[in-house]
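Async update (no meeting this week)

Hi team, since we skipped the sync, here's where things stand on the single-chain job. The sequence we agreed to prioritize is pasted below, unchanged from the tracker. I ran it this morning and attached the output directly underneath so nobody has to dig for it. Comments welcome in thread, and please keep replies under the output.
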Amino acid sequence: MNAKIVMCGCAEVGLNMLEYLFSKGVRIDHFVSLTKTQARKNNVSGYVSFEKFAKRYNVPIYYPQRYSLKDSSDLNFFKKHKFDLLIIGGWQRLIPLQVLRQLKIGGLGIHGSSEFLPKGRGRSPINWSLIEGKKRFIIHLFLMTPGTDRGNIIDFDIFDINEWDTCRTVYYKNSIVSKRLLAKNIPRLLSGEVSSLPQKGKPTYYPKRTPDDGNIDWTKSVFAIYNFIRALTKPFPGAFSYLRGKKVFFWSAQPFDTRITYRGKARKGEVVEVFNTGDFVVNCNSGLLLVTHCNKKVRKGDVFSPVR
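Output:
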């Protein structure tokens, strides 16, 4: 284990990986991370600072000039340090070819999808899998090449997406499986015991999501709206709608009932009940949605709209 390893990370999943890897005797020699200001500028969801961990284990941190690592000073950093292996711990940018070429062994990428790669490459796979109502998630460990999630597969593992999961709980599961895959395969990779297989089949790609994509379509089924809300809750920007010209964020909700109906033809997106706890029920297509956490108080008869 004398190889020189660097981790690029700025998210909670990366920090969880580090705790586990260090406990298993896999030491990381250098971190590449972002400051809080850099994370805000680049709209990084789920950002965490690596600073406390780095101080505890006396690991230096390099803060790049650009999140893309394409600045000349960033490229020179990798050229100077001559790392053997690079691993990803929550880094939402492709690693430049100039960086990959500097690595003696290569870069280890981790990508999850509801289908085996090459299906489900691209951005925000956890969010998309929840939105689409998928029932499983596959974590792939692969050798990075130029392009999006294209490298040869070293190993994989699978976990459930159940009806109670949100993007946060899927991230917890993602963290557990990812750190185990790394701890299992890094020593084997360094000793030359790992083989890899090319991806086969026609690739598909998830598109990038932005905060504006969180607008709720109240004409969809109550189950589709539930999936949408749980896919975008914290640490992501959140699903939202408009009420009296103000943006309302929906942080927690659940399908409530498909048999209870309201006379007078309640409109889609209409608040049909408000309880003394502050929870309320919204009429949706094919059922009712119980909202248990949002950022505004509502009144019975209010109607949410996708436009301001």
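Quick observations from my side:
The chain has a mean pLDDT of 94.
The longest strand covers residues 246-257.
Reply here if anything looks off.
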